Structures are given as structure tokens and as C-alpha cells.
From TrEMBL:
One of its GO terms (cellular component) is mitochondrion. This is Isopropylmalate dehydrogenase-like domain-containing protein. InterPro entries: IsoCit/isopropylmalate_DH_CS (IPR019818), IsoPropMal-DH-like_dom (IPR024084). Keywords: Magnesium. It comes from Filobasidium floriforme. GO terms for molecular function: homoisocitrate dehydrogenase activity; isocitrate dehydrogenase (NAD+) activity; magnesium ion binding; NAD binding. GO terms for biological process: isocitrate metabolic process; lysine biosynthetic process; tricarboxylic acid cycle. Belongs to the isocitrate and isopropylmalate dehydrogenases family. Residues 11-361 form the Isopropylmalate dehydrogenase-like domain. The keyword Aminoacyl-tRNA synthetase does not apply.
Amino acid sequence: MAAAAIRNTLKIGMIPADGIGREVLPAAQRTLEALGSSIPKPEFIPLLAGWDLFQKTGTALPEETIRTLKEECDGAMFGAVSSPSHKVAGYSSPIVALRKHMDLYANIRPVASVPGQDGKQINMVIVRENTECLYVKQEEVTTLPDGTKKAIAIRQITERASSRIGRMAFELALKRGQEREINPSASFWKGPPKVTIIHKSNVLSATDGLFRETVRSVKESDEARYSSILLEEQIVDSMVYRLFREPEIFDVTVAPNLYGDIISDGAAALVGSLGLVPSLNAGDSFAMGEPVHGSAPDIEGQGIANPIATIRSTALLLSHLGHTEQAARINQAVNSVLLEGRFLTPDLGGKSKTDEVIDAILKKL
């Protein structure tokens, strides 16, 4: 990933959006502030988006939010968005729209168990193509002659999008391999870096077939650079089975949009909660951290939302901006709190409040 230029200040767009996004996003600001002079002085720019905003104004993603991100911000943090399960005229998910407007073509989702904890060992990254597949949202419903309805959705896979997400996956695998060489004890993974292509080209031979062949061609066209990387494939349903049976076999996986979305939520179950899993929406010139969990309306307003996914997403954004040491410090603090087990939110079997978990992590920093 290309790091942004180091500046005297870090201007971070803050988009809480809906539900518990408004409750966990303050954790990102407090974490950055707690790092003090070890990073450029953070400046936070509040921005609007979301379903609640749409209900009030008729707009889910204001043009001002897009303009500010493009012209003023070094990066951004996004909370969570609520989206109705039925079609609402004029509404489109603002997070999907943001990914397209900012050309955030990669959704990078690390899923890792905490070193020292019992259970299956997992330390993988899911690299999800972020701009197409079924998420192009080209759907229509027609009425058949017998009065019943038929719905059709267009699935788009392009060579351009598949090529650049493939390159992102290979570059990430190289980076992880280099980090393991520097600090072998930081990961249980002992072999060479590996990229696994996730597809269903045995059925979807045109779309998934193009994705599979294009990602493979990225390695073949730059074999000198990627010669150290093992390349494997998994049919998506087989991959899900193996993910739960033997998660330790995966290093970096690369997948079309829908598969990546589903796989990353499933992988989160292996580490205990969606509330632990971060993501980074990344392009060639901008990045936005985003916890994988949704807006969780069932616990909204109770002060018990898990802030760890947001804090880890903050670390991902920092690393992308070139502050890798500070990002590592954040993750070490999170792991320490999880290992101690004194401050855990209800999703992890504890009774702590959101702010109590944030306070415990910041004390470790």
C-alpha cells in the first residue's frame, strides 16, 4: 500500500453515521490523541452521512462530505451505517458510494487470534474487491405474464478491478512476509507468504473465471517481484469449510466483493466477535478505517458496544499513513487488555461499558 506523505498534522475526516457508529468512533479520536507527539498532531473534521441523515434530509451522502474528504483530509474513519432491508426510493448506502467516489477499491480485513489465547490459531487478511460484483446495484423487478415477479441483478467483474485488487493482495503478502522476517515471534506463520484466490469459476465461468485468471496473471506478469509468494486457489464454499476447520492454512486471501464480505464476517466468529475485527478501505491515494461490525440497533444507546474493531481500524489507518510503529503499539495494547480479560464488553462475555474498555486500552498506551 502506498503511504501518504508525512505531514505536521494529520487531518482525519470523522463520519460516525448511524447506530453504534456514533458510540465507537470517539475511540478512534481518543486513541490518536493518546499517541501524543509520536505522530503529527491530529485534527478531526466531523462529517455527515448515513440512513438517519437520509431520513432527515433526503440525502445519505452530502456532496460536502465527499468534497472535504478529497480536498482537506489525509484519511478518514467511518463508524457504521444502517440500511433498510427493503428498497427505499432515493436511498443508496453511503459507505458503498464513498468507496466509489474516493476510489477505495480494496477492503483490507485482518482477522487474527490474540497470541497466548486458547483456541484455533488464525492470522489472515481478507483482501476484498470493493467496487463491483453484485454491489454495482443494478437490479430490476419485472412482472411476468402470470402475475408473478422476477428479480434480476447484474454482477460486474472487470479485468481492471481484478488486476489492481490482485496486485494489492500480492503487495500485502510481501509486506507481511517482510514483517515476519524482522520479528518471527510476532506470528505463528512460519512458511513463505501465500495468496489464495477465492472464486466459484466452476459455475460462474465468465465472471469468476475472469477474476481468477486476472489475479493469476498479476503474479505471472511480475514473477521476479512475486517469486517468493505461493499462489493457491479455493472454491468459495470449500474455502468456508476449510476456514472453520483449519484457519491456520490461510495467509492472504483475495476475493470478489460479495465473497469477501461474507468470508470476513464468518472469520470474525473464529476470534470471538465482529466487535474485534477492523478493516481499511484503501485506494492508491486515500484510505478510510471502518470497523467490520454494523450499526447494531439492538444495543444502540446502551453504552456496551465493543470499541476494539474501531481502535484496530485506527491502527490500520495509521500504518497506511506511514506510522507503523504507533500502529503496532495500539495493537499490542489491545491484545494485552484482551489477554487480561478484566475489561470485556458483553459480546465477549464481559460486563464492561464501551468507555471502560477504551480507558483500559489507552492506559496500556
